[in-house]
Specification:
Length: 250
C-alpha cells in the first residue's frame, strides 16, 4: 500500500466521517449553490467545512496547461441497477455493490453517481451543459476516486434517457434504476485528465483522485432539460490549481 494512499485514507475518516456514506456530502448543515449558503460561504457554515475555504487542493479546476503522460488506462466493470435519489442538491444513483473501476494497480468500488449543471470542470475556460461524477471508494484505503464525464446535447443516450424519465421531482424521493447500466454513460474512449483534489461539495475534503474523461457523451437536449428543470445550477465554480500538475493521457 502506498504511503500517500494510506495517509489520505486516514484523512478521509478523520476529516470527513460522513463521506463513507453514499451522499459524500455534509449533512445537517444547510448549504446551497447561491446566496448566503453558497460556495463563497461554505467554509464558514461549520468547522467541518473549513477545507472549503482554507484548503489548497480544492476542486473543480479549469483544466489547462496539461502535461501529457503515460498514465494507466481506466477499466470499468459496473453493475446494472441501483436506486435513483433526489437528495436536494442533485439527482444521485446509489450503485449496487461490487462495481469496480481499475486504474493500474488500484481498484475502486463504485458507490454512487450524480449530475451537475453546468459542468463543474472547465476545459481551457469552457464549460459544458452537464457533468456526471462517478464516485468510487478505494478498496483498501477508503480514499475516493471520482470519474467525471461531460454531457452535451446531441443524439439521444438510452441510459440517460431511462434515468431522466424516472428523475424524482421532490427532494427525498426515490425511484428504481433497475435495468440501467451506468456504463452506458461512458464515452467510447476513456482517455482522461487526472489530478489530486477534493470533493466539490461540503465538507470539500481533499481526498479525491480526480479522473476527467477527455471525450464528452451526447444526450438528448430534452433529457438535459428534465434535469435542469430540477437543478438549473448546481455547480461549484472552478478553483485555482495552486501549482498542482494536471496529467493527460497520451
Amino acid at each position: 500500500m502506498e504511503r500517500r494512499d494510506f495517509i489520505r485514507g486516514l484523512a478521509l475518516l478523520a476529516a470527513c466521517p460522513l463521506c463513507v456514506k453514499t451522499s459524500f456530502a455534509a449533512e445537517g448543515v444547510h448549504w446551497a449553490y447561491e446566496g448566503e449558503a453558497g460556495p463563497d460561504h461554505w467554509g464558514a457554515l461549520s468547522k467541518e467545512n473549513s477545507a472549503c475555504s482554507a484548503g489548497s487542493q480544492q476542486s473543480p479546476l479549469d483544466i489547462t496547461r496539461v502535461i501529457k503522460a503515460n498514465i494507466p488506462d481506466l477499466v470499468t466493470d459496473w453493475k446494472t441497477g441501483g436506486t435513483i435519489v433526489n437528495n436536494g442538491h442533485t439527482i444521485q444513483i446509489k450503485a449496487l455493490p461490487g462495481g469496480a473501476l481499475r486504474r493500474g494497480d488500484k481498484t475502486y468500488e463504485l458507490v454512487q453517481y450524480h449530475f451537475h449543471a453546468p459542468s463543474e470542470h472547465l476545459i481551457e475556460g469552457r464549460n459544458f451543459p452537464m457533468e456526471a461524477h462517478f464516485v468510487h471508494k478505494h478498496v483498501e484505503t477508503g480514499a475516493l476516486g471520482v470519474l467525471g464525464v461531460f454531457l452535451v446535447p446531441g443524439v439521444g443516450n438510452p441510459t440517460f434517457a431511462a434515468l431522466a424519465a424516472a428523475f424524482p421531482t421532490k427532494a427525498g424521493a426515490e425511484a428504481s434504476a433497475d435495468g440501467v447500466n451506468p456504463s452506458g454513460l461512458l464515452p467510447a474512449s476513456l482517455k482522461y485528465w487526472t489530478y489530486e483534489g477534493s470533493l466539490t461539495t461540503p465538507p470539500c475534503s481533499e481526498i479525491v483522485d480526480w479522473m476527467v474523461a477527455m471525450d464528452p457523451i451526447e444526450v438528448d437536449a430534452a433529457d438535459i432539460k428534465k434535469f435542469t428543470a430540477l437543478y438549473s445550477m448546481n455547480a461549484r465554480p472552478a478553483l485555482i490549481a495552486n501549482r498542482r500538475y494536471i496529467l493527460g493521457s497520451n
